[in-house]
Amino acid sequence: MLIDEWQEAPEILGAVKRIVDRDSTGRPGRFIITGSVRAAHQARTWPGTGRLIRVRMFGLTQAELALQHTYNPIDAFFSPEAPNYGPSDVSRGDYLDRLIAGRFPAVLRLKGRNRSRWFRSYIEQLIDRDAQQVADRRIRPAKLRAVFGSSVARTAQELNKNRTAEDAGVDYRSADFYMQLLEDLSVVMRIPAWDTKRLKRLTQTPKVHIADAGMAAHELRIDAVGLASDATLVGQLVETFVAAELAAHLETCAEDTAIFHFRNRDGKEVDLVLERNNRVTAIEVKSATSVDRSDAQGLIWMRDKIRANFHIGIVLYTGTLPYQLDDRIWALPISTLWEPPIDQHTAQSPT
Fold first, then answer.
1. In CA terms, which of 18, 77, 242, 337 is 20 to 30 Å from 103?
2. From residue 295, how far is each of 265, 271, 286, 329, 336 by CA, in Å?
3. What is the three-state SS of 37-59?
């Protein structure tokens, strides 16, 4: 049974609790309960401790769109085997088209003006209606919209609340409140800084990513052609595209895995750090169609510092060939996020 927007009638969870407690078989998955993130903290109701498992929802992944329903690239990246991917037939232009299209089911079939209208209406609905429903105080839509615009412009960058406040014309506390609200609305996500006692002089500032790169592109009023000619912006949005893909797959990993970014005060940085059982897969994202060892300097530095805890380093790029750059360092097409390794692809192919 699917119960949507449960916070509109929170007493319904009491009925669910009684049914679950009476079920001696302990069958999981009898109920799917969806609703607002913040409502889970606000409502005076049974929290579901020991009976509910929270799963954060995202837009469609590229693996889902490719009908690879059982493939999780994070599990593949932590495989004990060396990467075994075949050449990709996805071009740089194809990646930008996928990025611009976004991840919402309703918008994927739309193009041009119709796509822009959909995104515009969606953002207006979030700002003018949904935000007030989940906020615990009165909001000013114009200010929330300004903070959202600043977050879009700064996607894939470290969070700077002072600059966001300045961009939006609000004070520091208001900027922080509106940022949290955008997270609760699932349009902005913060990726925390990786913290480890094995390395020193680390920054603690999270990175901000828009949860849907297509929405960000719409807000920036740019299409795939314009994006291809803007070296800075294409780098930001391609990294956001990858971060959003990985964040969604975290929810279905075979083992608990966390996502971070890394930067120290000496300027060493890695775009994305996946940590599982004290093992690290480090990822750099490049919008270029060719990369070499110089593009993996942050990965190589981290490998040499944490040694045995470093599982693999990956430079995800918009080229077509997978190849090794250094010991435990690989260049892989971004399409490996939805195209399984050769042996796994063969195993999943219909007979």
1. 77
2. 20, 12, 8, 11, 18
3. CCHHHHCCCCCCCCCCCCCCCCC
**Residue 202 DSSP one-character state:** B
Count H helices and E strands in the chain, helices first. 16, 11
Tokens of 78: 């932590």
Helix, strand or coil for residue 207? strand
Q: 157-206: per-residue pLDDT in tens?
A: 999 889 999 988 988 888 999 999 999 888 999 999 998 876 776 778 99
Contacts of 261 (CB under 8 A, 6+ apart): 191, 192, 193, 194, 206, 207, 269, 270, 271, 272, 273
Residues 7-34 pLDDT 10s: 778 788 888 888 888 887 878 888 999 8
Q: Which residues are bridge partners to 198 per DSSP?
A: none
**b/e map 289-320, b = 16+ CB within 10 Å:** eebeeebbebbbbbbeebeeebbbbbbbbbbb
CA distances from 153 to 76, 168, 215, 300 (A): 32, 12, 12, 30
Strands of 188-191's sheet in order across: 157-158, 207-210, 188-191
- pLDDT single digits (tens) 209-268: 999 999 999 999 999 999 999 999 999 999 999 999 999 999 999 999 999 999 988 888
Instruction: State how far the Cα of 268 lies from the Cα of 289, in Å rounded to an integer.
Output: 23
The domain segmentation of the chain, as residue ranges, is 2-42, 62-348
Residue type, 185: L
- Give φ, ψ of 190 to 5 degrees: -100, 130
